[in-house]
Amino acid sequence: MTDAVFETERLVVRRWRDSDLPDLLAVYGDAEAMRWVGDGQPITENECREWFVVTRRNYDKRGYGMFAVEFKAQPGVIGFCGIVHPGGQEEPEVKYAYLRKFWGQGIATEALRGLIGYGTTEHRIARFIATTAPENSASHAVLTKAGMSRGELRKDEDGGFTQLFEYEAPNSAA
């Protein structure tokens, strides 16, 4: 049985394997890449192990979560994308991060389009959100190219701001 969740023209998006821990750590351990993710700090190997536990729990509970992304032509994890409910929030949120050497190649947009298609088709999700730092113009471009629309600018508990993006599936009931 394959662990592939969906494929795009260039990519295979699949469930995580235990053997992927070093690959996950390579993405999450990059301080420059992580400045845009979560609290902006790289995470440790133990935190990556806990991340795997949470991800598997999401697979069991919802049938989706965070997934590894590889090129079809060259196996090896280059990043991740997925659908999550941070802090138990109701709305499904899309997230992604990639090794820096793969930035600017359209990979994030391609994977995100596939992820939205997967979520709407396989899980009947009608609406997704994404959140970014207001100054993260590269991520804004990815989200827009993937079909998401800029939403409100939300004030955070710490006094900062988060830019909301939204996707509403065509023909979804309001």
UniProtKB/TrEMBL annotation:
Keyword Transferase: yes
Record's protein name: N-acetyltransferase
GO molecular function: acyltransferase activity, transferring groups other than amino-acyl groups
Domain (N-acetyltransferase): residue spans on this chain: 11-170
InterPro entries associated with the record: Acyl_CoA_acyltransferase (IPR016181), GNAT_dom (IPR000182), N-acetyltransferase (IPR051531)
Pfam family, one: Acetyltransf_3
Record-linked PROSITE patterns: GNAT
Keywords tagged on the record: Transferase
Gene3D superfamilies reported for this sequence: 3.40.630.30
